[in-house]
């Protein structure tokens, strides 16, 4: 059990951000710019779901600054117009991949004041401050976006105003409008529906310092154990995985003996070793998770050391090093399933060729045929070494932090519906990264883990709480009530 299922590589791969010259379509008149003098933004569109009907609509967009001044993306929006499948049908938005980072892109739905034969709704795309700005000539690059019916039924898109099944390469597209602070500066909306204001953006996380309830239920573990068979591990509510089963390579073994503890007291570090010789039978993985499923809204944090290279032998295996929280998938598209992941792939995997960190929030999925309902952030860089990982969950947003910086924010429909487990695992995605038969081992280490119920803490507040536990000599406490 883990974040073992990923959007297919073909859906995440960045495409070349080339823009075809000229306008597509006839009879469309550009709106006069209504932003600051020199501002000029144009929208490019393509689709990766070209059928008249589809499981989900996939309007891939990019925005290009064709003006003479730098334009902040915050306050800039794009609208994609479509005809709903019925007055009571609702839709959900997701971002599969974006050069600017999915955590910096918002998606909200609105209803047109003057419905037409091809449009009565719109999807509005916005940007957080983290998306930055576009200098003259710059583009956002790929924004691989999608939306789907909340009831998972097939949708019809052939009658959608902004859709074109033949538009499979990026080109200027005036049936997508661009607004700056609510004012239309590009494109043509359906008749009688020129944008005049924007809906509230999706939550992007609070920058204020919230109050802390000193009596809030909390879990803290410094992992001051002697071995994976230490009775205190089970007494403190942890289960060490053994035997076989997913995720990862079929036939690999989960090895409790490869979870070890180095040091004493608060200086102890849990080491989770992954060993392989390039075969399933010769692969040993490690996982530890809470026995109780009792964690939902609140702050989750851990100090984790990732490793890019093995302790010996050839490098290149598709290793997955994680910290996450999740609920079980009891049936395909289970509405009560949820998961929030930090997953580090030091050698790539799932089509990626190098270091990448994912922050993925899951609503649900169907393993066969594959249908993933999730959103993720990503950073293509090395995270070798120690890092402070933090995620917060409240009734409006899931926010991910690495070393004090927000790296992704996701709202509905990805918020958890039921209590979850906390988990660390270290596993091998497949055997394709390195085929050598020479044994090699990779280490993922954990210094501590912390959870506080129903409190959204800042990284500084978490550091203060952990320092308080350590100064008091507390290596373990758990006052979080059972579910």
From TrEMBL:
Pfam families: CBM_3 (PF00942)
Residues of the CBM3 domain: 37-191
Keywords from the named record: Signal
Keyword Signal: yes
Region entry Disordered, spans: 186-219
Compositional bias segments (type: Low complexity): 189-210
Domain GH16: 150-457
Signal sequence residues: 1-31
CDD domains: Glyco_hydrolase_16
Origin: domain of life: Bacteria
InterPro entries registered for this protein in UniProt: Beta-glucanase-like, CBM2/CBM3_carb-bd_dom_sf, CBM3, CBM3_sf, ConA-like_dom_sf
Name the UniProt record assigns to this protein: Cellulose binding domain-containing protein
Organism per entry: Kitasatospora terrestris
């Amino acid at each position: 059990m883990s974040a073992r299922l990923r959007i297919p590589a073909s859906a995440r791969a960045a495409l070349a951000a080339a823009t075809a010259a000229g306008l597509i379509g006839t009879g469309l008149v550009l709106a006069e710019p209504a932003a600051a003098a020199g501002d000029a933004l144009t929208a490019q569109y393509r689709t990766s779901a070209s059928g008249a009907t589809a499981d989900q609509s996939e309007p891939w967009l990019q925005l290009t600054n064709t003006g003479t001044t730098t334009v902040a993306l915050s306050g800039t929006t794009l609208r994609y117009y479509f005809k709903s499948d019925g007055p009571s049908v609702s839709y959900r938005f997701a971002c599969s991949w974006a050069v600017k980072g999915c955590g910096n892109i918002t998606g909200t739905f609105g209803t047109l004041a003057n419905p037409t034969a091809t449009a009565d709704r719109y999807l509005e795309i916005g940007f957080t401050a983290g998306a930055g700005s576009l200098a003259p000539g710059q583009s956002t690059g790929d924004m691989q976006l999608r939306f789907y019916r909340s009831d998972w039924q097939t949708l019809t898109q052939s009658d959608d105003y902004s859709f074109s099944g033949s538009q499979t390469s990026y080109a200027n597209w005036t049936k997508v409008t661009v607004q700056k602070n609510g004012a239309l500066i590009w494109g043509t909306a359906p008749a009688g529906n020129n944008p005049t204001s924007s809906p509230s953006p999706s939550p992007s996380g609070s920058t204020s310092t919230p109050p802390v309830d000193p009596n809030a239920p909390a879990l803290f573990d410094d992992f001051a154990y002697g071995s994976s068979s230490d009775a205190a591990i089970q007494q403190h509510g942890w289960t060490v995985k053994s035997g076989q089963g997913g995720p990862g390579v079929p036939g690999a073994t989960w090895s409790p003996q490869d979870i070890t503890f180095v040091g004493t007291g608060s200086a102890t570090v849990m080491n989770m070793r992954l060993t392989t010789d390039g075969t399933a039978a010769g692969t040993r993985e490690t996982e530890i998770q809470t026995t109780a499923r009792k964690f939902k809204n609140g702050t989750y944090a851990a100090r984790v050391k990732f490793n890019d290279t093995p302790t010996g032998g050839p490098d290149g295996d598709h290793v997955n090093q994680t910290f996450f929280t999740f609920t079980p998938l009891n049936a395909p598209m289970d509405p009560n399933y949820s998961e929030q992941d930090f997953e580090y792939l030091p050698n790539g995997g799932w089509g990626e060729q190098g270091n990448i960190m994912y922050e993925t929030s899951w609503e649900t999925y169907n393993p066969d045929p594959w249908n993933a309902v999730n959103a993720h952030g990503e950073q293509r860089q090395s995270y070798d070494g120690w890092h402070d990982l933090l995620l917060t969950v409240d009734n409006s947003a899931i926010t991910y932090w690495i070393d004090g910086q927000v790296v992704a924010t996701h709202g509905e429909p990805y918020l958890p519906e039921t209590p979850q487990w906390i988990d660390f695992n270290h596993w091998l995605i497949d055997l394709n990264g390195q085929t050598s038969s020479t044994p090699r081992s990779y280490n993922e280490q954990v210094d501590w883990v912390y959870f506080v119920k129903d409190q959204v803490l800042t990284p500084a507040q978490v550091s203060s709480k952990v320092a308080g536990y350590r100064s008091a000599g507390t290596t373990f406490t758990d006052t979080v009530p059972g579910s």
